[in-house]
Amino acid sequence: MKSITRIAASLALSAAALQAHAADGDAAKGKDLAYTCTGCHGVTGYKNAYPQYNVPKIGGQNQAYLVAALTAYRAGERSHPTMVAQAQGYTEQDILDIAAYLSSVNEGAAK
Amino acid sequence: MSLNRKLITAFALLACTGALSAAPHGDVEAGKTKSATCQACHGADGNTTIDGSYPKLAGQYATYLSKALHDYKSGERKNPIMAGFAATLSEQDIADLAAYFASQSGDIKDLSHLK
After folding, report:
1. For chain A, which residues make up each domain, given as ranges?
2. Taking the model in full, what pTM does it have?
3. At what angle do helices A63-74 and A81-88 cross, to 10 degrees?
């Protein structure tokens, strides 16, 4: 009985660990997915055409904010055509992975 | 070109210039004064947010910050907290705040160093 309790407890712990990992996102997977982002966000001073404004800097941005932004584009709550199209191609896990990667990329970059 | 033509051309050019400069010029110092409320969540340095779901603003492009504030104000971008603040901002306030946060330096970067 004792061992069953122990097994159950360890299973619960690993489930929690798995969930924690999912919530964190996998930056290595995010790196592959984020290659597309550099097409616009990787061009210094690049401007959105209509209306005209600079494409935002997203490297080193807060992870949770990036998740919120991509999730809002995916749901159509934020209405930029290119970003909606991109975000709709991502799963929830993809978004977590991309955010984990992008929030980490400023480390070591020239300020 | 007749004098009339010249005058018309001159006025047309003036009208264009006026349209281009319709957005007020942002004043960093004025923006700093107006940013007290923003600092409560986005940090005094614009880079140390009190919650990870709030964006870092320090060093962001002024044009993007202006676009975001306009979208919150118009309701195009929906966020109950930001809608409340943006509703009170004039065009000059938005220009000043955008200029101020853009002038700060922080963590955020474009992705050009990854290419």
Report:
1. 26-104
2. 0.80
3. 100
- Let me know if residue B115 belongs to a domain: no
Count CA atoms within 13 Å of residue B58 on its CB side.
Answer: 17
In B, which residues are within 8 Å of A111 by CB distance?
105, 109
3-state secondary structure of B32: helix
In a domain, B19, yes or no: no
Question: What is d(CA B96, CA B66) in angstroms, rounded to the nearest whole number?
Answer: 9
What are the tens digits of pLDDT across the range A38-60? 999 999 999 998 889 999 999 99
Q: Into which CATH architecture does domain A26-104 fall?
A: Orthogonal Bundle (1.10)
Contact B51 A64 (CB under 8 A): yes
**Interface test mutation site (partner A, options B51, B81, B114, max chain A beta carbons within 10 A):** B114
